[in-house]
Amino acid sequence: MEGGKLSAVRIAVREAPYRQFLGRREPSVVEFPPWSDGKSLVVERNEYHFDHAYPSTVGQEVVYQDLIQPLVERVILGFQCTALAYGQTGTGKSYSMGMASTDKPEHLGVLPRVLSDILDRVSAMKENRTGNTQVFASFIEIYNEKAYDLLGSEPHVPMVAARCHRCTCLPLNRQEDLQSLLNLGTGNRRVRATNLNASSSRSHAVVTIHVKSSTFHSRMNIVDLAGSEGVRRTGHEGVARQEGVNINLGLLSINKVVMSMAAGHTVIPYRDSVLTTVLQAYINKITHRTVVSYLLACISPHRCDLSETLSTLRFGTSAKKLRLNPMQVARRKNLLAARTPSMLRVNSSTAIKRHFNQHSANMLHRTRSELGMTPKAKKRARELLKLEEPSSIDISDSSLSFVGFQDQDQQRMPPPGQPGQPSSLHSTAVSVAEGEEDEPEQAAAMERSAMSMSMSTIVSPISLRPSSIQQEISGIQALGESCVEQCPWSRSHVRRSARLANIFAVDTSDTSGAIPQSSTSNLRRSRRLAEIRERSASAVARMETSRIATVRPQQSTTQSEGPRSRNLDPPAAEAWMVNHHRCFLDMLNNGGLRELQKIPGIGPKTAFTLSMHRSRLGCFNDLDQVKGLPIWPGKSWDRFSQVNCLDL
Ligand SMILES: Nc1ncnc2c1ncn2[C@@H]1O[C@H](COP(=O)(O)OP(=O)(O)OP(=O)(O)O)[C@@H](O)[C@H]1O
């Protein structure tokens, strides 16, 4: 079934030509609007939509190619297909289905074309030796509620088996077999002249074409129903009248079956007539994935046949409601894809989707590979690093090259002998010391203090030694320590965002080329915590030392005590305060929410707001900036600074 349509039966409506013997030519009751795209028609101002709508001018060839040829292709692939003609008497059902004999090739109907087509394909398959496929055909009719085997030795003796399982199947090997089969079947079929049709079929005919191979047995049913007729209009009496009644009974029962199925009933009245009993096997599977069905509804252009025409269109509309469930559609597609040769499938949407999926997967893999995220890339990088990892790397060697970096990058590295870019504090302290030569003592004190802080409290990322665990975080072994110091790119403890930012900064700036010493907030969280712990430990140790050296023995010291309470000398007190401010600022800049909450005067809410401001600003440059934040109502900053000894 084409597309993703859920309709189990495809419906086509075909208009019959004018019946000459009705005399006066009147306008047709059926209109084919130009906007309909060959899929809808208008009768009595009601528009009906179907899969195809053919005016009387459309020939047999078009109908065959549109409706039946796709079914032939499916039958060869192992699907069960049914094409059924339904409509009023004299509207061209037998003509369309090819059960009326004709000499002109353009008037050949479905049956001879199908048989011929199947035989051609099977012969081609035999020539290509792609399988041993055989074709058989059976021809039965249901007349007066009895089934007859038209190809059997006694065509006018009713069959016993209700479902006609044991009917005669003639093998079809050549085109000549085909002709003899058609002559035999149509010749045995009961036909009678009525007021409405000179050769009206008095029975429902079912031709089944079997295609048998070693792997499947598919069938194609071509059903030509007798025409519905008003018994009075036919002008028949006696046997002919009874024929008409039985014909209508069969049509009524097939109508009821289709209606029940469309309404979703669980009990379907198949046994109401022989026609539905015989067709039960096919109708039952109409929504099955391996069944493809076409209904050709034939209608008359005459106004006198209007009620019959509307009845036929109603039947078509009911059949349109038979739905495949989406699972069946998906399975049918899969089945079709599995049975279609791969060459034919290459252009299908599934193949295209698969191609794109594969393409995007390749792209993703390539990107991951370029970023060094794939195991292979990691391994390669490790091997390269091992090659370059020198126990004897001399960091003073300016020709030292770093794996994976361009020369220009190398040129932007800090000059040899300078272990990393000095921290901002370091540089500030040095500049102060350099600029204030007239105050040597103070400058020296500041420098001493700054140096001591840079050694103990201010931890430059470059001076960090990643732990062995941290070295493994990125999946790439770290370089030798000297290299790590020189090559900040490979520092796995620096956040990836910071590393990338550094890369872009180096690319776009022509400054010293050194990686800007980002604040420690760019360090990984584990590293920051380790630093805080390290700093607090060293601060305690330092305070202990200074206490022993300067504080009177009787004074107790606690961490919250200020310099005043320790009676420090002014320069020492000032240095202590600078140190303390720096430590505190570090804590504010690097502490997580939990660490911030441990600071006296900071609750969960303040900690959260503080961290939000910190993320917005990057980090706090000094305590004045913290003080200026709109989170200290009233005198809360005073209380906060007091409790944390931030004031002298
Ligand atoms: N599209 C058509 N083009 C040319 N002739 C047609 C067309 N449709 C029907 N006819 C002619 O109309 C006449 C009646 O057609 P046919 O016997 O196929 O009708 P029917 O629906 O099978 O009737 P019944 O149900 O009584 O058997 C035939 O002579 C047939 O050639």
Model description:
- The chain has 648 residues and is of the alpha/beta class.
- Among the domains are: 9-16 and 51-339, Kinesin motor domain (Kinesin, 3-Layer(aba) Sandwich); 546-648, DNA polymerase, domain 1, CATH 1.10.150.
- It contains 25 helices and 14 strands.
- Strands 1, 5, 6, 7, 8, 9, 12, 13 and 14 form a nine-stranded mixed sheet that branches. It has a three-stranded antiparallel sheet with strand order 2-3-4, with helices on one face. It has a two-stranded antiparallel ribbon with strand order 10-11.
- Helix 1 (60-77) crosses helix 3 (110-127).
- The radius of gyration is 47 Å and the shape is elongated.
- The model is unreliable at 343-348, 388-490, 506-518 and 548-560 (pLDDT under 50).
- The structure holds adenosine-5'-triphosphate.
- Adenosine-5'-triphosphate (ATP) binds next to helix 2 and strand 11.
- Adenosine-5'-triphosphate binds at residues 16-17, 56, 87, 89-95, 100, 197, 199-201, 226-227, 298.
Please sum up the structure shown.
By secondary structure, this protein is an alpha/beta fold. It has 25 helices and 14 strands.
CATH superfamily (homologous) name of the domain at 9-16 and 51-339:
Kinesin motor domain
Query: CATH topology of the domain at 9-16 and 51-339, anyone?
Result: Kinesin
CATH architecture tag of the domain at 9-16 and 51-339: 3-Layer(aba) Sandwich
Low-confidence parts lasting 5 or more residues at pLDDT below 50?
343-348, 388-490, 506-518, 548-560
